[in-house]
Amino acid sequence: MHINYDSLLRLIAFAFALLPGFLLLDRWWRERIYDLQGKTILITGGSRGLGLVMARQLIDAGARIAICARDEAELERARTELEQRGKEVFALTCDVTDQAQVEQMVQQVKERFGAIDILINNAGTDIIGPVETLTMQDYDDMMKLHFWAPLYTTYAVLPEMQQQKNGRIVNISSIGGKLASPHMVGYCASKFALVGLSEGMRTELAKDGIAVTTVCPGFIHTGVVDHAVMKGQHRKEFAWFSIGDSLPLLSASAEKVARATIAGLRRGATEVIVPFPTWVSVKFYALFPGLSTNLFGLLNRLLPEPGGIGKERAFGKDSHSAWSPSWLTYLSDRAARRNNERPVTEPKATTEVKEVGTDGKVSPQVPPEVQA
To answer: What is the pLDDT of residues 289-324, one digit of tens each?
Structure first.
């Protein structure tokens, strides 16, 4: 039997040339066939920042939204703004690190809207400082919020999704769940744990028709920096963190990350990494882990030494300096005004799950820049 190897190689080359086009077409098709109209979506940490921006875009796509957070006033501002888009929004106070509250919250959402079609685990925070300043409590708090909370919500919605053989779960991790940045060790450890949980869940739940998507964004200018926790030389730590959060080439807008996340959940993507420089960084780390960690070691030498307030905590809002806020943090400051990140209040413990906006009180005015 004679084989024309020249023709065979040309055929293979032609197939490889067409492959990117077929992949893009498949991606486009899967995003279009999954209709969000009428879907019930629960977003944890949905009262501000990325969670609020995703809620806006999902409502505009016709979804029914439930959001939860700890701060009642913050939730009410978010609910009032979102309902101006013409859809009912169910807002609940809930501490997602408390399993009993999570189960009660999920039950109330189901009683209001029916089965939860999509769960977005978005709640999170940052603790910034040298490893010498981190305490066991810091690590415990990060694990509770970034690992245990998504686990509680996932197990709360899972039985019904498995019964229906359908569902979407989106876990908002971070580039910090792919590569470990200096001065963010506790944060990165918890986000690595979330990535492992999310990817493991995807492999096991695919048989039940449930798609689990892991989202790993880099810096996002959502305006969250004033809510972050700083340790050590807290003003210097806040300066580098908030400036990095606003750099146009290194960071992305919350709107861009939200669009990429929603597109990923619609097509049931395994992973979403945005923006493009973040994707490049993750791939570079995967290929050259030793070199990457050595480069991070050099970066660490440029960051603030331990000292200052030591192991005590200071919020970003209490860590301002001549460097930040400034014109260098313009993008983050603008996002804070748009995304309900202000005023910044100290988080309060939530002891009960309750609906927000049903006590007859006058809803607070939504700032014009938020309505826009």
So the answer is: 999 999 999 999 999 999 999 999 999 999 999 999
Q: What are phi and psi of 117, to 5 degrees?
A: -85, -35
Which pair of tokens denotes residue 180? Answer: 């470990």
Q: Which of 261, 248, 239 is nearest to 321 (CA)?
A: 239
- Crossing angle of helices 185-205/136-143, nearest 10°? 30
Select from 193, 24, 58, 21 the least CA-distant residue to 124: 193
Residues belonging to the active site: 187
Q: Give Cα 182 distance to the centre of its chain.
A: 20
What is d(CA 157, CA 44) in angstroms, rounded to the nearest whole number?
13
Query: For the chain, what are the domain ranges?
Result: 37-358+365-371
Which stretches of the chain are assigned E, i.e. beta strand? Answer: 40-44, 64-69, 89-93, 118-121, 127-128, 167-172, 210-215, 219-221, 229-230, 251-253, 271-272, 314-315, 354-355
**Token match 């709107």: residue?**
255
The whole-angstrom separation of Cα 202 and Cα 270 is: 8
- Beta-sheet pairing, 229-230 with 314-315: antiparallel
What is the per-residue pLDDT across 182-240, written as a single tens digit (0 to 9) for each?
999 999 999 999 999 999 999 999 999 999 999 999 999 999 999 999 999 999 999 99
Q: In whole angstroms, how far apart are CA 230 and each of 53, 137, 258, 313, 328?
A: 25, 14, 26, 6, 19
Q: Residue 296: phi, psi to the nearest 5?
A: -65, -35
CB atoms within 10 A of CB 267: 19
- Is the alpha carbon torsion for 304, 310, 244, 271 positive or negative? positive
Distance CA 6, CA 177 (A): 46
Task: Give burial (CB, 10 Å; 0-12/13-18/19+) of 364.
Answer: exposed
Residue 120: other Cβ atoms inside 10 A: 30
CB 184, CB 162: distance < 8 Å: no
The three-class DSSP label of residue 121 is strand
According to the CATH classification, is domain 37-358+365-371 in 3.40.630.30? no
